Amino acid sequence: MIRKQRLLLKVTQKKLASKLGISRSYLSKIENKEFKNVKLNLFENIAEELNLDLNCLLDWFLEK
């Protein structure tokens, strides 16, 4: 979901990661659901930057 929306908006991982104050590799791992201990405020910031609904983003991240 994050990657799809990011690409739709033509935002690179590097640019989004910079806006979020995280590394590009950390963002990549979030996009691939490789981390499970992501802070809620980071999801809030991702949702805001990518114009995503926070609840939908959280549902996507938590699904198996």
Q: The biggest beta sheet, please? A: none
Give the strand tally.
0
Low-confidence stretches: none
Helix content: 55-70%
- The whole-angstrom Rg is 10 Å
Mean pLDDT: 94
Measured distance between first and last alpha carbons: 13 Å
What's the shape?
globular
Separate helix tally = 5
SSE order, one letter for each helix or strand: HHHHH
Q: Classify the secondary structure makeup into a structural class.
A: mainly alpha
* Beta-strand percent range: under 5%
Could you give the topology of this structure?
Blueprint lengths: L1 H7 L4 H8 L3 H8 L8 H11 L3 H9 L2
Helix pairs in contact: 2-3
Please describe what this structure looks like.
With 64 residues, the protein is mainly α. It has helices at 2-8, 13-20, 24-31, 40-50, 54-62. It is globular. The two termini are 13 Å apart.
Can you tag this structure with a few keywords?
single chain; 64 residues; mainly alpha; globular
Summarize the structure in short:
This protein is an all-alpha fold. It contains 5 helices and no strands.
